Write a sequence for this structure.
């Protein structure tokens, strides 16, 4: 057996202890590879919302890379610690420290090579499947499978560098004290945690304060709280696992009538040892799970934004023609024709909009006539407005502005034409999307409207007026392809910032809706995969902890069989050990995320009033279900190993 | 009164090589008797203990403890039988590391849901007799080997079992502590009428017993009864062992009592 063979066999004959670790790293490589396949896709070299996909995936890859670095760092140092005894034997037999380092380096590289290769193979196998999902989400005609060396090189390069870094660092984990110490093994002592009641209380207080701040956050304080609450919660979580839990258990143990009852004696004492042993692991799992929940929850809450979209965009199509637009009739006719071709019913209301300067604010104001406005309101099924001479009405551009305007009252003069007005009302619906009209838009009755005969200051006669063509299309989501060539010069001008020669504005809310919806779905899709990697990694920590303790647990199990425990009692004990291991960090992560979302809700309210509760319930429920399945899988294997003696 | 009756017990391990660990072994143990089972390595001592303690199955024959055949009990009754009728003392103590000495002691009682008062009373009783008082609240890794073995004996006694099974109880102890533990066990059988079966390699340990049963290759070889002088009993045991022809390692270096 050569030296390399020894390393090789060490890995392959211990594959079972590496199982969950390999699963997590293979999955990480796989996700990374699939993202790379998207990023280098020839179709994605174009502009548009695919840029978002590529950028999102690129960021996700960076996150994955950094996370995997930490994951490997933690896992491998734990592996090496668990193998202290084995290293002791090797050094006893005369292996030098240098050779030992070489051995560990080889082993890590074998593990790295194995997971990278397996990850790429699985990744490539599943690429077609993920391309299909991606095509659906991005509404692409087609997203064919392609073959290029780039994704392979990126993935192999990234993970090779990662494993090399980790191999070099991990070598330094081996503590070569005296060989005797190594032979005894690292986890020999089974003391209960040295806990301090003061720190336990402090941990709980920190958590309480963090929760309180998160729950009572307001618009104004939210940006400060972002920097205060997470550190508080993190330190609180750490103290909770390292101190508070032990204080609780100790209190519980003091009450013999509870503690000295049937299997509780063993299961509680055992829980105390396992909790102490795994306090750091619990902390890491909690934080990682919280981040995963938050990522997915945030992205899922974006999708609910689309529900709000219709409320602020009630119009089907909007075409605004400014002075000097020669294409006006041609383009409006084209839009009508396209709607007819696609058999979409519509109502077209052209509105004449005049612009004046208000004496009250000094800003310019967009003005519409009552009759035209009412025609549109009726078409949309809203109530008609009524105005007397000298009266005017605000037109809100968002739900937020509606609330603001309802509180305001203004007396003003339209300076250019000398029309005096009293604005004491607000139309109770949002008709026009925010940026299609001036933020100050009012309606005048027809007489007052016709009295406006002067243009806005600095404009020639009639040059400041424009026409607003509002299309009401009941089936508004089906207008995606309408007016593509009208929209195109505008999007181009937006990118280049050069609006010269474009004297119109066109908006297609159906198209934008689709765009929002798919981008959020895409981000969610990217985030879900990253979160899955996070959760698998968290699961692998738990698996590894159980696996390294298996020998000891098995001895204990045999003893308890001899002492006369029934199968049911043993089952109970095993459950009480495993349930906290799986669900304690989980539960805490859920509570953390719940409070985080309460704060997030406040931030959201600023953009759009929407509730993210139902999305969150679905996301967290789904994850919990997965965790339960994982629990049963691991328990089944664990019990089988315990019984095998 | 016969407490344990071993009747033509045979145990065959099937496998790549069929191995007959015990062959038609028969003997009886009286109430209050302290029996040592000796024999060379591989003679079937531990198998015998496992059969009596019901954690291994018989190939043929019968084991009766207090008139009950534990091998005929179903899997729900068997643990109950074990926890009520049997007490175990092991070579490596097998205390649960996460429990204190006191908690290790009450472990068999908690399973049966005994009232706290009664449990505390029994702990006090045993702690007095076994001198466990000073370290009742310590963990097993904080006490010495002798103290750990006394704790284990306490755990085996606390539920007042019919039979105590001891597997090399002095194997990990120094001679002074061994002596204490053995005197404790023989005292228990003499004064309290506890029935003990002890498997051992050590002729000194065996010399504390009432009777020594020798087995070789799974079969009965010889038995000798103790007399008032332990010194002469010890010599007799050594004589039988030399006849038995076990390897030299099986005999402890002579350390006279």
């Amino acid at each position: 057996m050569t030296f390399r063979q020894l390393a090789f066999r060490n890995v392959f004959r211990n594959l079972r202890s590496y199982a969950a670790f390999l699963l997590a790293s293979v999955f990480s490589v796989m996700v990374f590879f699939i993202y790379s396949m998207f990023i280098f896709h020839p179709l994605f070299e174009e502009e548009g919302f695919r840029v978002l996909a590529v950028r999102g995936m690129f960021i996700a890859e960076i996150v994955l890379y950094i996370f995997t670095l930490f994951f490997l760092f933690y896992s491998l140092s734990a592996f090496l610690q668990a193998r202290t005894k084995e290293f002791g034997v090797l050094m006893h037999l005369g292996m030098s420290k240098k050779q030992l380092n070489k051995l560990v380096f080889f082993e890590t590289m074998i593990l790295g090579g194995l997971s990278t290769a397996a990850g790429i193979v699985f990744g490539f196998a599943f690429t077609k499947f993920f391309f299909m999902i991606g095509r659906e989400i991005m509404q692409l005609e087609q997203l064919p499978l392609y073959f290029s060396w780039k994704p392979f090189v990126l993935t192999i390069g990234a993970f090779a560098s990662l494993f090399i870094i980790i191999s070099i660092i991990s070598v330094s984990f081996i503590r070569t004290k005296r060989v005797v110490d190594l032979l005894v093994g690292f986890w020999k002592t089974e003391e209960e945690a040295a806990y301090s009641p003061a720190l336990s209380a402090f941990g709980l207080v920190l958590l309480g304060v963090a929760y309180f701040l998160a729950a009572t956050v307001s618009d104004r304080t939210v940006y400060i709280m972002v920097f205060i609450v997470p550190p508080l919660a993190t330190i609180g979580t750490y103290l909770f696992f390292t101190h508070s839990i032990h204080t609780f258990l100790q209190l519980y143990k003091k009450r013999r009538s509870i503690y000295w009852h049937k299997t509780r004696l063993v299961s509680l004492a055992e829980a105390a040892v396992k909790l102490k042993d795994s306090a750091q692991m619990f902390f890491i799992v909690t934080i990682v799970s919280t981040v995963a929940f938050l990522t997915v929850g945030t992205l899922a809450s974006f999708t609910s934004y689309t529900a709000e979209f219709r409320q602020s965009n009630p119009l089907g199509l909007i075409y605004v023609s400014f002075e000097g637009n020669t294409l006006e009739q041609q383009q409006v006719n084209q839009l009508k024709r396209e709607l007819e071709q696609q058999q979409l019913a519509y109502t077209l209301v052209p509105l004449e909009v005049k612009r004046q300067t208000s004496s009250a604010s000094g800003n310019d104001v967009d003005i519409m006539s009552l009759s035209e406005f009412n025609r549109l309101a009726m078409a949309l099924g809203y109530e008609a407005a009524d105005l007397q001479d000298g009266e005017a009405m605000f037109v809100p551009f968002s739900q937020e502005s509606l609330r603001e305007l309802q509180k305001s009252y203004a007396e003003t003069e339209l300076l250019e034409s000398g029309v005096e007005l009293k604005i004491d009302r607000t139309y109770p619906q949002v008709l026009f999307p925010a940026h299609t009209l001036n933020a100050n838009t009012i309606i005048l009755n027809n007489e007052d409207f016709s009295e406006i005969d002067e243009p806005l200051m600095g404009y020639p006669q009639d040059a400041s007026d424009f026409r607003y063509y509002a299309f009401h299309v009941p089936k508004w989501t089906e207008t995606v392809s309408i007016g593509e060539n009208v929209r195109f010069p505008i999007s181009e001008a937006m990118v280049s910032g050069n609006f010269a020669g474009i004297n119109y504005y066109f908006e297609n809310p159906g198209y934008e809706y689709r765009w929002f919806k798919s981008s959020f779905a895409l981000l969610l899709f990217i985030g879900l995969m990253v979160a899955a990697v996070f959760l698998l990694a968290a699961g692998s920590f738990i698996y590894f902890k159980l696996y390294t303790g298996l020998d000891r647990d098995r001895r204990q199990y045999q003893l308890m069989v001899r002492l006369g425990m029934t199968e049911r009692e043993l089952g109970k004990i095993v459950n009480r050990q495993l349930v906290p291991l799986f669900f304690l960090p989980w539960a805490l992560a859920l509570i953390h995320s719940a409070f985080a979302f309460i704060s997030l809700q406040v931030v959201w309210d600023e953009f759009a009033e929407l509730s993210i509760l139902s999305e969150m319930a679905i996301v967290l429920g789904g994850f919990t279900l997965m965790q339960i399945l994982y629990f049963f899988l691991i328990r089944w294997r664990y019990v089988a190993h315990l019984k095998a003696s | 009164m016969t407490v344990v009756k071993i009747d033509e017990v045979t145990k065959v391990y099937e496998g790549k090589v069929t191995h007959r660990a015990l062959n038609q072994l028969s003997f009886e143990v009286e109430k209050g008797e302290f029996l040592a089972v000796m024999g060379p390595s591989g003679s079937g001592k531990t198998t015998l203990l496992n059969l009596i303690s019901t954690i291994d199955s018989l190939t043929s024959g019968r084991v009766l403890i207090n008139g009950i055949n534990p091998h005929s009990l179903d899997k729900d009754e068997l643990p109950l039988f074990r926890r009520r009728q049997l007490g175990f003392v092991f070579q490596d103590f097998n205390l649960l590391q996460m429990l204190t000495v006191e908690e290790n002691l009450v472990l068999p009682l908690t399973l049966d849901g005994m009232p706290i008062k009664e449990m505390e009373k029994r702990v006090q009783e045993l702690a007095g007799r076994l001198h466990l008082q000073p370290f009742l609240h310590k963990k097993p890794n904080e006490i010495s080997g002798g103290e750990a073995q006394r704790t284990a004996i306490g755990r085996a006694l606390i539920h007042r079992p019919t039979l105590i099974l001891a597997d090399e109880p002095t194997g990990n102890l120094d001679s002074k502590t061994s002596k204490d533990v053995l005197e404790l066990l023989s005292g228990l059988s003499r004064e309290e009428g506890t029935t003990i079966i002890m498997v051992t390699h050590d002729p000194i340990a065996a010399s504390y017993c009432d009777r020594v049963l020798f087995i070789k290759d799974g079969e009965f070889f010889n038995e000798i009864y103790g007399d008032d002088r332990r010194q002469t009993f010890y010599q007799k045991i050594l004589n039988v062992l030399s006849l038995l022809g076990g390897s030299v390692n099986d005999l402890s270096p002579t350390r006279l009592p």
About this structure: DSSP finds eight helices and nine strands in chain B. Helices of chain B lie at 45-52, 77-85, 101-111, 116-130, 145-157, 175-192, 203-206, 230-244.
